[in-house]
Request: fold
Amino acid sequence: MIHGFRVEQWIGPAVEEARVAADRKQLQRLKRLGVRSTLSGGGPSVPEGFFEKDPEARWFGTGRFQKYIRESTTQLLRRFPEADALEIYLWETPLLNDADFFKGMGWLPRVRAFSAAEPWMSPAGMIAELLTAYARGAEVTGKDFMLLTFAHFPAQERLLIDALKLVDPKVPMLLIHKGQ
Reply:
């Protein structure tokens, strides 16, 4: 397992090709030995300046954020064809952590109706959308998507359970649970 992965560090024009080649060489060695390898890291994460370049991606209702997650997952697994899976864990990235829940993001820009903001999507729904995007991105490459169901607090664990209930059962996803 290559741990500590941040997807945006491995795709796009700023990637260090020498580092990619070195990691691929290690993965090829494992593959020859019959060992399954997994790329593992916190999610979601986006490159610096991502939302400035694509402000519409801040809103889950546009599908642009999910599209980025799906496409970057596919791109990552194609860059490392020797890897068998991508594993992510939540709650430890700038976008989604113990203090920030999809910081600066939402379903759609708030709409006022009779002076009350309408809710558009539950927090569990946003996580379900995120997990589906990761899984679909991996599915394109024939690789596995794994979610480490780690949580720092009981409320995060309940939220994750609620999100998993919303994910279509046909979405290919492996769950690994780590308790504290």
